[in-house]
Fold each of these.
Amino acid sequence: MWRGNAWPATLLIAGMVGYGLFVSLSMTTWTDYRQLLSDSVFLESVGLSLYVAVSSTGLSVMIGALLAAFFAKQTGWTAHLLAIPLFIPHLGAAYLSLLYLSDLPVIGPHEGNHFSIILTYLYKEIPFVFFYLLPVYRRLDHRYEELGLMLGLSHLRRFWHGKGVFLLFPVLEAAFIVFAFTLFAYEVPALLGVTYPKMIGVYAFDLYTQGDLSSQPTAFAISVVLTGMLFVLLLLFTRLIRPLTDRISKGRSE
């Protein structure tokens, strides 16, 4: 009955997020948000989280898209090797980084450049992006590029009209998923990150669990701010970017 229907999962997730947001709002006041915006530790945590999320997302999407473009033309089983990291949870990937990168001074865990966190996310998210985009690449109609060649279009314009307009939204969709996850994640930065500054997920968790009840409203305020940021990004993505890419795709394909 529910096979192929995304509404049950959507309603369940929306209910969980809505309930969590309601509880967080009930535990905070406007003073908590004003103090949060003037908290230098919180602002540094947001900056660090954005650095890690943007770096991980950009590299994962770029490498994953290139691999999908290459293996879309292959028929063997080699591409399935990239599925191996998907069977290892993020916490397990973090432990692998702790085990194999500890002796490397530049990219080892607990280094200020946070390369070990970024590499762990690359190990996990590149396969995700690859398998997310592989079916899209395999459905592309290469006759559009051939038509562009007949019309004398440049290589860049042939790629855009033949593939780019059809890849734009799936690539942005994959990027949004990876960015949202890495921005608010806890497990990997908690295990591999430094004690200061902490990524925002670790900072909020520590505030809530450190035993000082006076700090808990700040943790709830952080959860509200992060949820609001994610909601704004989702709204921009669904209301602005997706209609734009749909119009571009339909305009080129008709």
Note: The chain is about 75% helix and 0% strand.
Amino acid sequence: MENNKYSILLYYCYAQIEDPEAYREEHHLFCVENNIRGRIIISPEGLNGTVSGLKEDCERYMAYIHGDPRFAKTEFKIESHDKHAFAKIHVRVKPEIVHSSLRHIDPNVRTGKHLEPEEFKALKDQEDVVILDVRSNYEHELGKFKNAITLDIENFRDFPDKVKELEHLKNKKVLTYCTGGIKCEKASAFLLEQGFSDVYQLHGGIIKYGLEAGGEDFEGKCYVFDNRIAVDVNKVNPVVISTCHVCGTTCDRMVNCANPTCNAHLAICEKCGWELEGACSTECKEHPEKRPYDGTGYYQKNTNGYNPYKGLFRRQDKEKIKTTIHGQKDSRVGTDHQS
């Protein structure tokens, strides 16, 4: 929409980072100073993030990423929005940019052939082609490509164990896809490693396919990892494929269970959502730790001890950092900023 003043950026880049902790500090500071919010993972193998901000702030952020030679090839999926999609900024160091159990694979060395959205669209219905969804159950139950093969996995790290179920497809053209493309980089490489002969991946994932090819034949909605929870993709022939977990009516409204010890990702209709106060069952509704329900079914991710100030005060310009973080002198940091 033309009135949307914010952007949501989805991106990843496989690139070697020698000192992830030092880069985390630098990256976090840039986000704080430019009112960028979201979740960013930094690891020795690269970057992975979803962030939001005013369009001009996001332009600065993309320029910052591209200005580093290590990440110059980073491609951003850009969606417009009417507000921030996150409440805070978290920049964390982790062993991988997506937990895969495939740390030995370097997509810069070998991976499936990249297909642009229009190329994927042209190939997907051919007789010798199979479409493979490499996402988790709660994602493909909400939405998937028509005729796609889905795997019964709770997390992407379970993907390698499921590949043996696909042995009969080794001589087919296998088109893999995920939300933004990052999982397919390693999933397609692993399929090649296991003897699959002709493997492809949807470059930029479902999000780019929706933006550039209209989303044709993607059925349902796409689960996303921000406070929107689920987004429309298909502007050509949309259908709803999910049903309410509670009452069984057709429903594509995604909710995270209000019981944090459950936190299941499920389709729950608005009526059942209010009746169960955001919980997925009576038991979860009565759980003593149940979170207050505001009708969205989205809850800010637990920080798990994350310290946004870690290491920042070692810099020579620490006084500038203090005033920026606390909003005492920086005129750009106001009611629209939470760090």
Note: Residues 327-339 have pLDDT under 50 and may be disordered.
Amino acid sequence: MMNTVNKNQEICPIVETIKVIGGKWELTIIRYLSDRPMRFNELLRNAHGISSRTLSRILKILMEKGLVKRELISLQPVVVLYSLTESGSEIRPVIDALRKWGEKYITSGENTIY
């Protein structure tokens, strides 16, 4: 279903969603935070292949978009916990659907592009 801004421009909700969460690392971080809140180094270990610099940048982007929140738990030692906001948590069904499709796709043998 398309929404229109004016007569000449249509907005597709799917395209707009992909603009927000469609990047490889954004979706990966949201996926891990959908399981539970995590500290920075936990995310770094789980999101294989991401650099700490990129993780920091993506977390900032997700916080600016209102999908992730950062909570200072302790000052000594400094403990920071990242978690999904209420808006970020609404993405869980999408993550679950992607997981189910991926499991089916991987076991079906159709993944010949790898």
Note: Strands lie at 3-6, 9-11, 68-75, 78-84.
Amino acid sequence: MAEPTIRAAGALLWRDGPEFAVIHRPRYDDWSFPKGKIDPGEHVLRAAVREIEEETGIVPRLGRRLPTCTYPVGERTKRVEYWAARPVAESAFTPNDEVDELVWLPAGEAEARLSYAHDVDLLREFLRGPLHTAPLVILRHASAGEKHAWRDADELRPLDATGRAEAADLAGLLHCYGILRPVSSATARCLETVLPYARLIRASVRTDAAFTVGDTSPEQAVERLLGSAGAPMVVSTHGEIVSALVTGLCKAFGEKVPDDPSLRKGEFWTAHLTGRSMAALERHSPRTTQP
């Protein structure tokens, strides 16, 4: 039986210049980008942020998704999920057993310093795309019980126990992207889904009829979304609206629409946008670490 794949997450961490954070690991005597194994039950977004903090002392904000690197490690395969990332907060680097040196280098010097071809490829891929992107998150509200079992006005239907747990998990996942402006459908279940995140970043949630089922149309929802594209934002909305938003966003930026643009409850799409392009699109669930 084949050994299970080793799953890891990390980032190409950069700052204005641009300069890139390259770390030295004494155990292997190599130079690479920050990364590490995903803990059992840990979400890949949280793992990427945690590993950067542990190895560099830098609190990052994740940017666009970069290609996944897969390579052999002995008789096993290692799969590393990567993002571009920018520092939000930085403390003095403290050498440790895993990482004893961190240097910030311009692209040419970073490429020459890196020990592995897959890291060089990752750097070159990043440089082919836009440096600065803004995350736009389309979020389907978390679990809210069965509609047919709710006897009051549908806009008052709240999250159930599963949904409340999902909303709490989503707060930390969304925070991996930094500060996003929270916008919601004007229904209890959508508001409650994004409320823990809004509390975390000390922001208020703006409701918008354009994203509220029964008060909008797919065309209106897409028009409102495109009018806000370019600013970091999370939109908490309904399953009936999600597919139209994702499809409209992809078509507006000339990108292929995903085979299944819909979402399960509590899942979200993150589009990484510039003023004129969509640099990446990724899908996540609060309940899994994403295979």
Note: Residues 5-128 form a domain with the Nucleoside Triphosphate Pyrophosphohydrolase fold (CATH 3.90.79.10).
